[in-house]
Every structure is written in structure tokens, then in C-alpha cells.
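Notebook, student rotation project (T.W.).
Task set for the rotation: take a protein with a known small-molecule partner, predict the structure of the complex, and write up what can be learned from the model alone. Partner molecule chosen: pyridoxal-5'-phosphate. Sequence and SMILES entered below by T.W., checked by me.
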Amino acid sequence: MNNIKKTTHIRSNFQNVPFWNPTKIFDHEIGKNIHRMDLNECPYPPSERVVKAIQEAARDLNRYPDGTCPSLTPMIAKDLNIPEDTITWGGGSTQLLTAIAEISVAPNQNIVAPKLVWKRFQGVYKIVDANVTHVENNSDGSINVGSMLSAINSDTKLVICVTPNNPTGLMLSETEMKKLCEETPDDVLLFIDEAYYEFAIHAGGPDVLKILKNRRGPWVVTRTFSKAYALAGIRLGYVICSSNEIVNAIRMVSSTFNLNGMAEAAAIAAWEEPEYSKFILDRNAEEREKVVNGLKALGYNPIESVTNFVSCDIKRPASEVVTKMRERGIRISTVGGGEFENFIRLSMGLPEDTEAFLDAIKEILE
Ligand SMILES: Cc1ncc(COP(=O)(O)O)c(C=O)c1O
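Predicted structure of the complex:
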């Protein structure tokens, strides 16, 4: 906006920043049966068991919950074979992304990250006022580990890698992950965002945590209950860190008053019910196959995602197609500017969402 005067009461990196709100529901969408295929949500509701746990936890909402998740943490630590004091919690893993950058990067210090990466990271860079090296992705959209490593310099404090990455849905191979872990210098924090971890494992991906455990230098990996556990609305994510020192630094930024009083109970119930996650992951793979095949049948070449979303070059500006889809009640999203401006991204839904998407995209693109 041109008429905003120069302000002095907030730091310069926060002045005139655009507000990115992908969760906005438009007025014409309220109360309508909208196909929500833009936020990489799980289309299935939490299981009955999880809903019951939430209802029971609601009785204690007059109290502050223990933000260290004292019952859930040992369960996860045991299953992942990691010390309990190397896990901490965020109001969604989104909150942890910022905390990780804040504890490691001072203004004007360097972050190395892929150019094509989840849009929220642009906000994280602004918050810490970092000098970011945006590393070109390979031409297929995948992360170029060699270029990431070459971009690291003596000012670099944080290396960010998302696997599987959003918006491509592509994951690093075991060899690439090992290279990244071994060759990122020992004085640089290596941050792996694994929001789509369960999808990667379902697709036969590498055990990133196991590789990280062998890294000499510091590392953190974030995961979430939002996707494969159908709990985006409960806002619970976690970070596993190479040391308790990092855990406590993150807690300093995020505080332990950051979680809601139902999150831990919901997550325990979900963690104890892996068959429901498996159901979600199996159904997701089926819908993804239908979407990929449907786009191929129309002559397009979608990226071979392992996640709950698919991106595709539709050979014309994606923003126009996204608008037309939204007018038809189907929410999908763009991928980015530059060489990706012709790419759409859609999240997997129920079979009826897939059908509605394929019918509409056919009509629009033809
Ligand atoms: C790569 C990536 N990281 C993190 C998140 C945030 O997940 P949450 O804050 O729900 O844990 C998302 C959400 O879409 C994502 O795509």
C-alpha cells in the first residue's frame, strides 16, 4: 500500500509485510460443500477414539496444560529410540520453524535453503532478518544437495531442507540425505522439515532420523500430527533435536504455554491407533494415483509426489486456473513464481474430490 508512512515503532523487517493467509474462507464458500484441496489437509476426520479423548480433555480446559507433553513424549521417545529430553513441542510444526531460525540465526547472518520450498519459510526469513541464499532446485523441482552444500559459507548458521518438499512432493534419497548430513559443517545447524514424514515412509523413503543420528554436527527435525494423523486443527508438531541444549533454546522462544489443553490427549489417542494412519496413507496413495493418471490422460506431466499433494505444469499461468477452480468450489493452489508460475498444486481428498477436480480441470484446460 502506497499510503503507509514509514514507521519506527516496529523493526524494519516487519514493516509493510504482506499478510499471507492461505486458510481464509471466502464469503461465498461459507456453509457450502467446498472441495478443500489447497492446504494439504487430511480429508478424513480424526477417529472416534481421538474425538473421545479430546472431549474428555476438554473438561480440564480451565487449567494450563503441561507444554512438555509429559505422557506423549516418552511414548514417542521409546518408539523412535531417542532420549526423552531431545523432544519439544509446538503449536503445529509451523511455530517450531520460526523458533529454530530464531535460536540459530542473528540478523544478517546467512541461511541456506532451497529456492522452491514451502511458502511459509519466506515469513521465517523475514522474522529473523536473515540473509538467505536461495539455492536453485534441479529442473525437475527436486532439491540439489550438491548446490546446497556449495552455497554454505562462513556466515551460514542454518541449512534448511524439507523432505519430502512442499510444493514438489519429492523426497531426498538415502544417499543424498547422508551426503547432506556428512558434509554440512559441524558448526552449522542442519534443519530437516519432515512434515510429510509418514507419507515418505509409506512410499518406501529413507529413515532420515537414523541418518541424522550419525551426524557429528547439530541437527533438528520437525514432524507434525497435522497430516497423517488427521489433526491439523489441534495444532501439534514436534521437533527432535541433537541435544537438550537446543530443546531448551527452542522452549525459550516458543514457551511451554504454547499448546492447547486438548492436543496431548488427542495425539496420544492418535499415536496409539497406527491402523487409522495407515488407512489414511493407503487411501491417499489411491487418490494420488488417480489424480496423476487423470492429469497424464489430459497430456500433462505431474511431478511424482510421495505426499498428500501433487503439483503439475499446466502450460499456462496457474493463478488463472486456480481462480476458475475456486469459482467452481474447488480450492487448489499455485506453486510459485518464475519458472513455476505454470504449476498448480492440489491436495488429495476423498474420491468425490478427485472426481470433481478431474472433471473441472478437464473442462478448464480444454
Ligand atoms: C513443509 C511443511 N512444513 C510444515 C507445515 C506445517 O504443518 P503444521 O504447522 O500443521 O504442523 C506444512 C503445512 O502444510 C508444510 O507443508
